[in-house]
Amino acid sequence: MGKIKQKGKTGAARVYITRNQALKKLQVTLADFRRICILKGVYPREPKNKKKANKGSTAPVTFYYSKDIQYLLHEPVVQKFREYKTFVRKLSKAIGKGELDTAKRLENNKPVYHLDHIIKERYPTFHDAIKDIDDALSMLFLFSTMPVTDKIGAATVANCERLCAEFQQYVIRTHSLRKTFLSIKGIYYQADIFGVEVTWIVPYKFSQNVPTDVDFRIMHTFLEFYQSLMGFVNFKLFNSIGLRYPPKLDVAKSESAAGLAAYDLEESNSLPAIAHGDNKQARKRIASLGNKIGDIVERDAKTDERPEQESAETNAAVDNGEDDKLDEFKAIDEDTSETPSKADAQVSSIDASLLAPFTFYLSREVPRFSLEFVIRAFGGKVAWDPVLGGGSPYAESDPVITHHISDRPHLAQKYEGRVYVQPQWVYDSVNKGRLERTDLYVPGATLPPHLSPFVKLSENDYNPEEEVSADEEEEEEEQGVDDNEDKKAIEEEKKVEEPSADVEEDETEKVDLEHQRELEAEAAGIEYSEYMKNNKPTKSKKRSIDAMSADQKSEKEAKELSKMMMSNKQRKLYNKLENANIKKENYNNNLRNKKKEIQKNKKAKANK
C-alpha cells in the first residue's frame, strides 16, 4: 500500500506559490520582487483550479510557478539588492553623524549589478534577441523624446537617444527598412533584420507633458533591461557588417542638432578580436562615448537626478564596458540560415535603392527626424533647412537637389529643375515599392488616402486603390438611362439574388411550417395532388426558381438539407455568420458605389 498523500503537498498546491509566500522565501520587499521578476522574465500564472492551488482558500491572490521562485533564489542580482539596502543604511548613518570621509568611501564602494548574464540566459542566441526587440525599441524611442524631469534623468534620455541613433544607422547602412506608416499615435516602422520582421513605433517630436498617474518605477525597470539588451544587439549588428562599435560621435555636430549626421561610421578590420572581447581600444571608446554624451548633457540641462542615480549608474556600468570582457551571444549552428554573418547581413536589396538617384531638401515645417531616416534607408541623399539643425550637406539653392519637400500651401520662392512634393509622397512611394505620381502630391493639393501597409486585404474586401473599369462605368450609364419600371425590376432581381438578412433568418421557419402543413393534410386524408393545387407557389417564387440553374438548385437544396440537420444552436450560429458576411458585403458595395459617384462627379466637373 502506497503512502497517503498529504493535503497541500501535491498537485496544484505544490506547483504554484502565492506572491506573499514568494516574498517570504526570497526575503525581499514587494518593490524588489517586482524588479527581479521583470528583469528575469518571471510572470504571474493562472492555475486551472485556484481553490486547490491556494490549499482550499478562495481569497483572491496572485500565483507564480514554484520552480520560477526557486530559480530566483540563486540570482546574484537579489544579493546585490540586499547589499544596496545595507549600503543605504550605512550611508545615511554616516551623513547623520557628519562623517564625510566615511560617506565618500561608502559612495565609492557602492554595490553595482550587471545584467549581461540575465540577457544571455533569456536569449541564448542572437536570433532570439532580434525577435524580442520590438518593445525595447518602442520604449527607447519614447524615452528619447521625453523631457528631463525629476523622474526622468538627463543621462537616461541621452543614453536612449544614442542607442536609437545607432540602431537607425544600422538600418540605413543595410537598407533593411521595409514599411512605414503615419498614424495618430506616432510613426510605425518595420525593418527586416536577419529574416525577422521588427516593428516599432516612434512618437512625434511635440512638447510632452509627463503624466502623474504613471508608475515610473516599473517603467524604469523595463527601460534598464531594454538599454542593456539594445547595447548587446547594436554591438552584434555593427560587428556583423564590419563596422566599429560604438560609432564616433562628433561633439560639434551633436551640439548643433545634426542628429544622425553627427555619427561617423568606421569599418573594422579586426572583427574576431572585438567579438571575443580582446580589443581594449573598443572598451575605451565605449567609455569615452559615454563621457562625451555626459558633457553635452551637463551643458544643456542641469537638473536634479537623485531618483535616477541607481539606474543611471547601473546602465553606465553595463554600457561603458566595466566588465572584464565584452560578452557575445552564442552563434547558431552553421547548418541553419539564421547565423549572423556578413553575407546574411546584406538584406535583400529589393527596392532598397528606390530613392538613390535623388537628393531631397527638407523645409523647416516637415519632420526631419523621420524623413531623413526613411530617405537615407532607401539610398537617397538629404539636405535640410538650417532651422532644423546643423550639418546639412547642401544649401537650399544647390542645383544638385532634385526634390523639395514642403508642407506649405504656397511657396514664396521656387527653384527650377526640382520637383516640389508633400512629405506623404515619400512614405507612399516607399510602401508601394515604386515612385508615385508627383502631380498628386504638389504643395496645397488634396492628398490621396495614406493607407496602412500592415493591413492585408482579402479578395472581397474593399480596396480604396482599385480602379473602376471602363466597362463598369458604361454599364452604370446605361442603367441611369433606364425608366422606373426597369429600376423596379432590377431591385426585384437583386432581392432574389441577394436575400435580405430577415429572409435568411426566416427560411428555416418557413421550411418547418411547410412540412407541418403537409403532415396535417396527410392526417386529414387530403391527397398530395389536391394539396399542391391549393398551395401553388407565387409568381415571385416561380421566377426565382426558374432563374436558377440546375447546379444552383442542387446547391440550394443541399444547403437547406444541411440546415435542417443542424441543431437549433448551430442553426442560429450559422445564420449569424451568414448575416455578418451579407452586412460586410453590403458595406463594401456601398463604399465602391460612393467611390464611383465621386469619380463621376470629378469627370463631370472636368468636362465642364
UniProtKB/TrEMBL annotation:
Bias-annotated ranges (Acidic residues): 462-484, 499-509
Stretches assigned to the BRCT domain: 350-443
A GO BP annotation: maturation of LSU-rRNA from tricistronic rRNA transcript (SSU-rRNA, 5.8S rRNA, LSU-rRNA)
Biased composition range(s): Basic and acidic residues: 297-309, 485-498, 510-520
UniProt-annotated stretches for the region Disordered: 297-325, 452-560, 578-608
Function, in words: Component of the NOP7 complex, which is required for maturation of the 25S and 5.8S ribosomal RNAs and formation of the 60S ribosome.
Protein name, entry field: Pescadillo homolog
Native organism: Schizosaccharomyces octosporus (strain yFS286)
Gene designation: NOP7
